[in-house]
Amino acid sequence: MKILILGGDGYLGWPTAMHFSARGDEVWIIDNFAKRRWEMEEGIEPLLPIAPLHTRVNLWNESSEHKMHLRIVDLVDDRAVYKLIEECVPDTIIHYAEQPSAPYSMQGRTTAVNTQVNNIVGNLNLLFAMQKYCPDAHLVKLGTMGEYGTPNIDIEEGWLELEHNGRKDRVLYPKKPHSFYHLSKVHDSHNIEFACRVWGTRATDLNQGVVYGIDTDETLLKSEFRTSFHYDDVFGTVLNRFLVQAASGHPLTVYGSGTQTRGFLNLRDTIKCVEIAADNTPDAGEFRVFNQFTEQFSVMDLAEKVKSAGERAGLNVTINHIANPRVEQEDHYYNAKHTKLVDMGLDPILLTDEVTDSMLKSVLANCGHVDPNVFLPRITWTHRN
Ligand code: USQ
Hints:
By secondary structure, this protein is of the alpha/beta class. It is 37% helix and 19% strand. It has a single domain (2-374), classed as Rossmann fold. The protein has helices spanning 13-22, 34-42, 53-63, 78-88, 102-105, 109-133, 180-199, 238-247, 267-279, 299-312, 340-343, 353-364, and strands at 2-6, 26-31, 69-72, 92-95, 138-144, 159-164, 167-172, 202-208, 210-212, 252-255, 261-266, 287-292, 295-298, 319-322. It has a 7-stranded parallel β-sheet with strand order 3-2-1-4-5-8-12, with helices on both faces. It has a 3-stranded mixed β-sheet with strand order 9-11-13. Bound molecules: sulfoquinovose-uridine-C1,5'-diphosphate (USQ).
């Protein structure tokens, strides 16, 4: 396949690009380095430095028989997007190129607007360019489980069969997202579903849970191939943060009671899920939704797992409950379906003691330059500017 990966410089995009290239697909990467700019604005860095994307692609191309193509494109620039899609004419587009952080989007008006413009306008430009230059291509779009929020009913995979006043219909599952970032993904989902319904676009919306993990087979090949791993309060996801906090002797930052529950998955399973989606093209006009996570945990479940892993590694890990900076339900029902990807062949990597120990070991070996100032949350949901 000719695969275009949008956001190929990121935590998920770079390992995805290497994976498809390694298996022989023709990979095109685009990025505009917005994430690196946001990191500089926030004064944060990944745990380990990440080589420039050009360097990573050149090194990959020197050592691999399948060469990647790299273009610098901002999806908000409609002309650049049209030019890219006309030149590349991909079979499959994997779209990660979005502002990914809920706290970033909740800092105030500027970052909320930036997030929604970047994500929604970029995605819309892409839909139009696809319709014009590659109407049969398959869009694999990274959405989020946070689109659903924490409703008091079971969460279905994208669609809900509804009976109302004696009539039935199949509707998009109602959304109650957690942040302006999660809302941007809701708006994307609606725009994509509309494009499928009206233009016959083929799309898979992957409602992904919280990702944890450090390595994939390809990131381990060379130190320059490692992927961006954040532990800060803006871009770090909860388990990755807890691992670095434990390794550097900082108490684990559980927000509120820690009873809030989410779906989680290993970085390696992200790649596998995206591969399953890409290898199984939906029909023209089909808006397919998969809930992409493998296990549900509360924040406290994760804190306890990291504490136990720390004890096995000889560390004394303490758990701190701090005032929750977010407005989110802490005690809630959570039962989200996630069978479709498993039915299509996903064999999940579960968060066993062995997996937790191995991640902690890897973090311990690399936590010489941890910045302790980014452990406590600096952004609250109620602050306005
Ligand atoms: N949390 C803590 N302590 C921390 C950090 C987070 O208790 O130090 C709690 C949060 O309050 C929240 C949960 O952990 O209840 C998850 O927070 P998170 O920062 O790991 O994840 P979230 O903000 O939901 O966003 C992340 C990714 C986002 C993706 C989403 C999937 O940054 O790109 O869309 O996970 S999901 O959560 O399923 O929507």
